[in-house]
Every structure is written in structure tokens, then in C-alpha cells.
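User: Please predict the structure of the protein below. I'd like the answer in C-alpha cell form so I can feed it into my own downstream comparison script.

Assistant: Understood. Taking the following sequence of 268 residues as input:
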Amino acid sequence: MAIDSEKSGADGKVWSLCKMPFWQTSIASSSSSSATTAAAASSATISGQNQSHQAVERSSLHSSNAVSSMAKSLLPTRRRLRLDPSNKLFFPYEPGKQVKSAVGIKNTCKSHVAFKFQTTAPKSCYMRPPGGILAPGESVVATVFKFVEPPENNEKLVDHKSKVKFKIMSLKVKGEMDYVPELFDEQRDQVAVEQILRVIFLDPERPSPVLEKLKRQLAEADAALEARKKPPEDTGPRIVGEGLVIDEWKERRERYLARQQVEGVDSV
């Protein structure tokens, strides 16, 4: 019995040595490492999700910008000028002669706008004026000159059309300024093409509303040109030389005295 008790005591000691502390440590360390691994995996998953979400956002933003730019390109450009006629230039068909057409140009913006003509046939066509600056709401009638080539073998014009085209460009400017063609070269990215005008020939011997309207526009353009040629009327006193002011009363008095002198000489 003593031996059995000693054995049992020894076994108890051995069991007590193999009890909880060692296994608890290994279990705690394994559970801690598992928790760390799970946290790292979760963090990696969240990071991957964030990166994928950001990539999707960038992709959607890029696609939306592309769609927006495409939509803007499809939208019609807002016109700064209103043309009359809107897309054609009518010329009387007179082969071998220089003929004229006209187009009304009106600024429909709230700012000053410069305009400029271009043509595919600069040797046989020119514009008056070739360009200018219009204030808001201001309008002008431009005259277009063209030499009509005579047809070969005296052939008649069939379709009343020409390959010559004219282009009107516009540019917003800051206030009143002198027009120079270099404005369109300096601010090329701000230039807009208002319209491309096709040439249509009219039979001058056949009356039509289009021909009558063309005649009225040409008369208006000629009247405006003559008005610009006239010097401005001066209602005040005229200045002659350096600082010498002559009014009507003094002029009349000098003429009267001159006549008196002439009459006195004649009587003598």
C-alpha cells in the first residue's frame, strides 16, 4: 500500500507538472497568432476593397468626363452673330464681269465681337469691310465682290452654284478697340466659325424676291459707305491755323468790308 501511495504521489506530481500552464500558453499563443492573421487578412481585404472602389470611382469619373465632353461636342455652338442671308451669298450671274453680293451681320452678344471674312478664292473675291468689331446689338451690311468667269464654249449655267465658299469667323473682345486681323491669330483658341456661306447665282433678267432683297442690301451698304466718307459735321466755331477762331459774324463783316473797298475803288 505504501508503494501504491508513493506511485500515486509521483504520478500526481508528474500530472501536476503536465497540467494547465504549458498548454494554456501554447493555446493562448496560437489563438493570438490566429487573431493577428485574421486581422491582417481583414485589413488586406478592406484595403483591397478600398483600392478597387477608388479604381471604380476613377474609372466612372473618367467615363463621365468623356461622356460630358462628347455631349458638349455634339451640342450646337452658340452663335455670336446673326447673318442675313444665313448660309448663302447670292450673286447676279454676269459672266466676264465683277458682281456684288451682300450679307447683313448683327452682334447678338452682350459683349463686343470681332468678325472676319475668309474665302477659298482670294484672287477673284474680296470683301468690304474684310472684318470689323461690332458693339452689342450693332449691325453692318458687308459687300462681297466676285469676278464671274465666263463659261467655256458659251455653255449656260445649269445648277446656278459655284465651288467658291466664304467663311465668317467671330471673336469676343474686351470693349471698343481698333480692328486688326492679327486679333484672330493671337487668340486662335477663342475663335469660332460662325457660318460657311455657299455662292448661288441669280438670273439678273428674272425678277425674284431674293434679287430684290439683294438690291436693297447693296443700296444700304453703299449709303453707309458714303456716310462714313463724309467728314463729321462741326456745329461749333471753326479753328483755322493755330488758335485763330473765326465765327460767322466775323466772316460776314470781313466780306462786307471787302465789298466796300471794291466799290470805293470803282467809284474813284
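That's the full C-alpha cell string. The radius of gyration is 47 Å.
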